[in-house]
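Can't paste images in this forum, so I'm doing it all in text. The chain is below; anyone willing to post the predicted C-alpha cells underneath?
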Amino acid sequence: MFIGTVTLATGGLFLGGYTLLSPMILALAYTYSQDNRRKKVNFFVVQLEAKWLPWALLLMALILGGPNAAMMQGTGVVAAHLYDFLTRLYPTFGGGRNYIQTPGFVRGWFGGGNERTQRKGYGTAYAASSQQPSRPASGFSTAFSSPWSSRGQGRRLGGE
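Text version of the structure:
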C-alpha cells in the first residue's frame, strides 16, 4: 500500500505516468534483492547477484524504453528504498521506531500474529503445541516381528 502510494505520487503526479505496473514490479525486485543480496539470479543469459537485479532491470528499461520509461520505473526503486529505510534500516540502525505498521487484519491473513513463532538470529523457532495426543504413542505392533517393536512408546519432539 505504501509503495503503491509513493509510486502513484512520484510516477503518476510528477512524471505524468498512467501505467504504474512496471514501477511496482521493479519495487518488488528491489525488495527481493535487499532480502537476498548474495543469491544468484539469471537475467536473460547473464547470471548475477540478486543485489544487481533492479539495476539491470532499470538499465533494460533505459535501453528499450528511453529515459522517460527508466525514470518512471525508477520511482519503484525510490518507493521500495523508502519503504525499506522506514521499516527496517532506520528502526534497526538509527534507533527510531517503525512508522509504517502493517494493519492487524493483513497480518492475520498471512499468519503474522502467530505468537508461536519467534525470529532469532539463527532462524525461526516454533513453540511446542499445547495440544496433547489423545493417547500416548505406542510401538509398532503386528503379528510379525519388527526391529522397532521393542523400542518403547516413543516421544513426540517439542512436547513436555
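The CA atoms of residues 25 and 155 lie 48 Å apart. The radius of gyration is 25 Å.
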